[in-house]
Each structure stands twice: as structure tokens, then as C-alpha cells.
Design goal:
mainly alpha; 3-stranded antiparallel beta sheet
Amino acid sequence: MLVIALLVGGLATVLVLNTQRAQDAFTLTSLKKHNAQLHDKLQTLQGQVQQDTTPSTIASRAADLGMQPGGDPIFVDPTGKILGLGASGTVALSSGKRIGDLVVIGTPKPKPVTTPAPSATASTSAAAASPPAAPSAPATPATPTVTPASSARP
């Protein structure tokens, strides 16, 4: 009777293991199909990205949105010096005037001149003989605000 119980127990174990193995094989096949579908979708999306990032596609979409190609750039450094000219070739730096496609708001301010402080080793007689220096304003870079002409208010 013990032998029959062992045989029945062994057959039940083999049946459960084979059933689990078949279920795992079915799950594996399903996951492989899903993975292949996702890989195909990835390839399709990568192709669309490559197509959509070509210069001609970007230019046509920008034109559809009302964008226009930029002109020659104009650069203004913090001191107010113009480092480039627009298509017109002329630049005016007074407030509200056009600079190519830009409008300057405000005028550049000159940098204040600062004098060095007297050294601690200077003699007191020399300091007493010279008049005191006028206080100087703090050094702040003058930066005119430049906005695109289309967004500038009159």
C-alpha cells in the first residue's frame, strides 16, 4: 500500500510539474509576441522621429506656425558696444529706436570711474595735504534691454 501511495504521489507531482511547465511555455510565447510588437512599434516611432527632425520638415512646420527665418544677428555687450550689424547695416542706440529687427529700450550707461583707495602705508602728512576724493558710484554694468520688435510696445 505504501508503494501505491508513493506511485500516486509521484504521478501527481509529475502532472503538476508538467502543467506548470506548459503554462510557463504559453506565457513565454505570449511575452515574445508582445516584445516583437513593441520592437516593431519602436522602429516605426524612430523612423517618424528621423523624418520629423529633417531640416525641411522643421522649416515647413515653422512656416505653418507663422515663424520666419532670422536675419543677421546683432549683439550688444554689457558696455553698450554693438558687436554685429543687422541686414540694414545701421545701428542707433537711442531709446525706442530700431536696430534691425530689435528695439532698444533705454540707453547704455557709461561705467563709473573708480579711484583706488589710498594704501595703509601712505604717510599721514601726504594724506592731509591732498583733498579727499569724491565718493564714486558702485560699478554696475550698463546693459540695455533689447526686445524683438514684434513684441515691443509703442
